[in-house]
Specification:
There is one protein chain. This protein has 245 residues and is mainly alpha-helical. It has two domains: 78 residues, Orthogonal Bundle (Arc Repressor Mutant, subunit A), CATH 1.10.10; 142 residues, Four Helix Bundle (Hemerythrin (Met), subunit A) (Up-down Bundle), CATH 1.20.120. The longest helix has 26 residues. The relative contact order is 0.14.
Length: 245
């Protein structure tokens, strides 16, 4: 599917689907209680990242509320957060649109992401609590399973949890704020184009290497593994440019 095709698609709240299961036990990250706003955010963000809500499409606050079974106030707050992360645009008197995908903007994002995320993973390796280290170990195993099975839905969910855990473990509110604006856009771009190269196995392995380095409290290896991951994502993005244009 090309970027132009996705941008012409108008989003509709899809029918509910059963979560993809891998038989993996529920992680400590998933078991923590979430507020209704956090629940709404997580579900809508996943719908956008996995293109259930298509780029350029209109979405309805009331329809999302009914679909998710969550009140309109938490949904509205979740959408405001997604707007700050550039995944939706809230236009007065016009409604809410899922942001479109822009290749050049994606490349600029990666320039910034490399420098900030390198700091994040190094800080996480240094500052993670004992419980967080266990969570990184669990995520490393989940990435390994996703690499072996090629299960991209399991990978995309583990990736989201890894991103959130890394920001929490780094204990730097400034890098967390900056990275929070980039993760969703990066994950959606990969999801849109990953079938062109079928790189789920490699992406899962590269993420697993970063997670393992943090779990081992090895700052140098965490930074090196992160650079290898971003190198691959940049090459992936440039290949997408040559494919789509």
């Amino acid at each position: 599917m090309s970027t132009a095709t996705a941008n012409r698609t108008v989003s509709r709240v899809p029918a509910k689907r059963k979560p993809a299961g891998t038989g993996a036990r529920k992680s400590r990250i998933q078991s923590r209680p979430k507020s209704l706003t956090d629940q709404a955010y997580s579900k809508i963000e996943e719908m956008i990242v996995t293109l259930e809500l298509a780029p350029g499409g209109a979405i309805s606050e009331s329809e999302l509320s009914a679909h998710l079974g969550i009140g309109r106030t938490p949904v509205r707050e979740a959408l405001q957060r997604l707007a700050r992360e550039h995944l939706v645009h809230i236009i007065p008197q016009r409604g809410i649109l899922v942001s479109e995908i822009d290749i050049k903007r994606q490349l600029r994002l990666l320039e910034t992401r490399r420098e900030i995320e390198r700091l994040v993973v190094k800080c996480a390796a240094r500052r993670a609590s004992a419980e967080e280290i266990i969570e990184f170990q669990e995520l490393t195993k989940r990435f390994d399973r996703a690499a072996k099975t090629g299960d991209y839905e399991s990978f995309i969910r583990a990736d989201k949890e890894f991103n959130d855990l890394s920001l929490r473990a780094a204990r730097n509110e400034f890098s967390a704020a900056a990275m929070g604006l980039m993760h969703g856009l990066s994950r959606r771009f990969w999801f849109m184009h990953h079938r062109q190269t079928d790189d789920t196995e490699l992406m899962a392995k590269l993420h697993g290497a970063v997670s393992k380095a943090i779990a081992d409290r090895n700052e140098r290896m965490a930074a090196r593994a992160l650079d290898e991951l971003i190198d691959h994502i940049e090459a992936f993005t440039m290949n997408t440019v040559s494919t789509d244009y």
